[in-house]
Structure formats: C-alpha cells, structure tokens
Amino acid sequence: MRLSGKKVIALVDDEFEDLELWYPVYRVREEGAEVHLAGLEKGKTYVGKYGVPATAEYSWDELKADDYDGILVPGGWAPDKIRRYSAVLKLVQDFNTAKKPIGQICHAGWVLISAKILEGVTVTSTPGIRDDMENAGAIWKDEPVVQDGHIISARRPPDLPPYGKAFCDALAGE
C-alpha cells in the first residue's frame, strides 16, 4: 500500500458535507494511511448535513502538523464554523509552510481563506464562494480538481473520485 506509514488529519464540525468528509477519508485509508478525525472537542460526535456521524478522536488543540503528512478539510457548513478557531488556522498555516498536502473541497476554501494562505494560489471550489476565494488572492478555475503544489481543491461531491486520487497522489509524493 503506497500510503502505509502516512498520517492524515480530517477536520470535523457539525454540518460537514457527509460525502466530502467520508469519501476522502476512506479513499486515503484504502491506500494504507492512518486518518484521525479532529474537532473542537475530543470524543464529541458531530453530525453531517445528511445525518452521518463522525466522532472526533482528537481536539484541534492536541494536533501538530509536524506529526502528520496531510490534512483534509471537508465542505458543507462546517468550514464556516471551523475557520473561527485559531488552533485550526495555525494547523493549516503550518501544513502550508511545510508544503504538506492540504485537501479542500466545496466550501472548505473558507478555512484556507481565513488561514490567509491563498494569495497567488490556483484553486477551485463551489462556485458559491468563488468571489471569496478571488478576494483572498486566489486564482479560481471552474474545474473538477485543481492542484497548485501541495494544495488540492475540488468543487463538489461529483468531483470526489478525481479529488481523492489527486490527494492520495500528492500524499505519496507523485
């Protein structure tokens, strides 16, 4: 398995987009990586927009980018909550500084905007936050998946297959 020994964080909060969390998590696990779900409260069960639960194994405050190889930020309404926490923003900034894979889909771009890491970066997202992405200095494209260095972005659930592959490829260093 090409991702054996790799560790990834997946951020959670209430109203995450169920498929945008679980599809990449399972895709990365299928390749052999270990994925830890992290939320504001360790042990809390967060509920997705469509009712699928996700229990945080760690709190954001416990995590360090140095201990992980990549991070996944799901969409839904959760990113608007997640981006309000300094621990999350520092974590994303640290992944960015280390040039480790950062996966974001749909509304997850809000977290990267608040982390102030999108200046000059080419990305995609749901068209609904295109203006937000561009106002943060990003170059926005309407494509299923856009990879600019270590930042991998996708628009919405139908783009999950190529997004999952692109994130796994980046994690594998390919």
TrEMBL record:
Pfam family name, one: DJ-1_PfpI
Domain DJ-1/PfpI, chain residue ranges per copy: 6-167
Domain of life: Bacteria
CDD domains hit by this protein: GATase1_PfpI_like
Alphabetical UniProt keywords: Glutamine amidotransferase
NCBIfam families: PfpI (TIGR01382)
Family: Belongs to the peptidase C56 family.
Name of the molecule in the record: Type 1 glutamine amidotransferase domain-containing protein
Organism of this sequence: Paenibacillus rhizoplanae
